[in-house]
């Protein structure tokens, strides 16, 4: 379905971003990976997901907190593939602390990586998408783009912000073939959330399994994690012709979290 298209997924060496990159590769899209850490494993995982499809996979290590590195990554993708057809803004970090104790540098980093990076990639990807009259921008927000949780001021502010950016981008391109939508996951068991499970286990002196149950029980009625594969399925839907007129939505996959 996506043969000949190129998808750039920020923060895709791990977790949700990697899951979405694999799902898009399975549909035949070329992939530009980004993120920190080891790259051979994620590149191999994307190739494996593509199966027999002859896709190209590239990697760029731009730091999403730096506008000049983001510009270099977008130029690299354009030079390599002509343009980015599918942009998935996924890179994100978390820090938990009450507002009065929230470290200023953590606030700045979360706003830069979880929100401003999407502005930069979007502004740089849009002209070529508009010219082609086809494009898909998918912002990985969070259920925290729709509701708040204590201790997560910067994260919740950034995620509400990216839902706003999603709506404006969708509206500005509403008469074109370029759509912009957000995905709002509840808990997904990635390294980002494992840290929060570990913190709970330490805080209450309980096992990992008990901490997991506690974490889910506080927020997620289904008592189940959403998976990167499920989120990848939603990203594929947003790229399909059936989603041509889906514009500016913030679609939660959260086990009922925001329905409460
Ligand atoms: P993760 O920690 O598994 O992956 C984060 C990715 O972002 C990694 O590839 C990492 O290298 C990359 N990254 C971090 N800082 C970066 C930077 N400065 N520049 C470039 N890349 C950087 O986390 P995840 O859970 O897969 O989260 C992915 C997205 O999903 C985030 O935006 C997160 O807020 C969102 N999300 C996660 C959950 C969850 O429960 N895990 C829920 C809702 C939303």
Structure characterization notes:
With 260 residues, the chain is α/β, with parallel strands linked by helices. The chain has two domains: 6-187 and 226-259, Rossmann fold; 189-225, no CATH class. The chain has helices at 15-26, 40-50, 67-81, 104-132, 153-172, 191-204, 208-219, 228-239, and strands at residues 6-9, 30-34, 57-60, 86-89, 135-140, 178-185, 250-253. Strands 3-2-1-4-5-6-7 form a seven-stranded parallel sheet, sandwiched between helices. Helix 6 packs across helix 7 (208-219). The longest helix has 29 residues, at 104-132. The radius of gyration is 18 Å and the shape is globular. The N and C termini lie far apart (36 Å). The relative contact order is 0.14. The model has no long low-confidence stretch (mean pLDDT 97). The structure holds nicotinamide-adenine-dinucleotide (NAD). Nicotinamide-adenine-dinucleotide is lined by residues 11-17, 34-37, 63-65, 90-93, 113-114, 140, 142, 185, 187-188, 190-193. The site of nicotinamide-adenine-dinucleotide (NAD) has 29 residues, from helix 1, helix 4 and helix 6.
Strand order of the largest sheet: 3-2-1-4-5-6-7
SSE succession:
EHEHEHEHEHEHHHE
CATH superfamily of the largest domain: NAD(P)-binding Rossmann-like Domain
Runs with pLDDT <50, length 5+? none
Topology of this structure?
Blueprint: E1 6-9, H1 15-26, E2 30-34, H2 40-50, E3 57-60, H3 67-81, E4 86-89, H4 104-132, E5 135-140, H5 153-172, E6 178-185, H6 191-204, H7 208-219, H8 228-239, E7 250-253
Parallel strand pairs: 1-2, 1-4, 2-3, 4-5, 5-6, 6-7
Helix pairs in contact: 1-2, 1-8, 3-4, 4-5, 6-7
The structure holds nicotinamide-adenine-dinucleotide.
Nicotinamide-adenine-dinucleotide binds near residues 16 and 192.
